[in-house]
Amino acid sequence: MRRSTELPTLIVKCAACRKRKLAEFDLGPDGPSQTHHTVGAWSGPDGDDKVHLRCPCGHGHQVPRQQVTDALAAITGTKVIYL
Questions:
Q1: Choosing a second label site near 19 at 20 to 30 A (CA), which of 11, 13, 60, 66?
Q2: d(CA 37, CA 44)
Q3: Residues near 56 by Cβ (< 8 Å), separated by ≥ 6?
Q4: Which residue has the higher pLDDT, 47 or 75?
């Protein structure tokens, strides 16, 4: 089930596959949250410094929380990035 927040949405796709959606984030009042097709897990000293994403093909990616926050703050609507 997809949550519709009407907030800016960042879609992360695998750069190696160019087709697999790894995660979708929106920026709520308490920071970025995963909204759909979640395959990532947040980790770090505070429990949420990076999100670890893994493609079904085995490609792994780590994305810093600040990178997700900055990307969401810079967009309106929906943006797709490849990592």
A1: 66
A2: 22
A3: 20
A4: 75
